[in-house]
Specification:
InterPro entries: Pep_chain_release_fac_I. This is Class I peptide chain release factor. This protein is of the alpha+beta class. The chain has 4 helices and 5 strands; from the N terminus they run ββββαβααα.
């Protein structure tokens, strides 16, 4: 099956699929049908993907990537092989589509003076409230507490 996303075409020779028996819905068929799909896409050897997209795709794949540089997608969601196959290709398309998006760089901004002042005022207020919760000796300090009367 040929994948085409935003002008990038990935040929069927770059995607290998295998079928297996699976658990769950349709897994206990009488005739033992291979309805599960395992899709393998070698990111390292894919010439149609630019280098920056390839590196983002590797980061997005995470645990779904093996040591050989292949993204391995296993789908057992549907009862039919056709449904599982469509789901696997859909997941691969979504991953590649996400990798094609350029990351937006953060624009550095400064905290306004008024906001900084409000934050410091709030900190002073909270500090005062917490200080007033303690005993009189804590509030004034040991030198200012005066004589202790029993």
């Amino acid at each position: 099956m040929m994948l085409e996303l935003h002008g990038i075409a990935i040929g069927p020779e770059e995607i290998h699929e295998s079928f297996m028996r699976c658990s769950g819905p349709g897994g206990q068929n009488v005739n033992k049908v291979n309805s599960g799909v395992q899709l393998r896409f070698n990111v390292q050897d894919c010439a149609s993907l630019p280098e920056d997209v390839r590196s983002r795709l590797i980061r997005i794949a995470g645990n779904r990537m093996n040591k050989a540089g292949e993204i391995v997608l296993t789908v057992q969601k549907h009862r039919s092989q056709f449904g599982n196959r469509q789901e696997a290709f859909f997941r691969l398309e979504e991953m590649i589509g996400e990798a094609l998006k350029e990351p937006v760089s953060r624009k550095a901004t400064r905290v306004p003076r008024g906001a900084r002042q409000r934050r410091l005022d709030n900190k002073r207020h909270r500090s005062r409230v917490k200080r007033l919760r303690g005993s009189v000796a804590q509030r004034t300090g040991p030198a200012e507490a005066g004589p202790v009367l029993f």
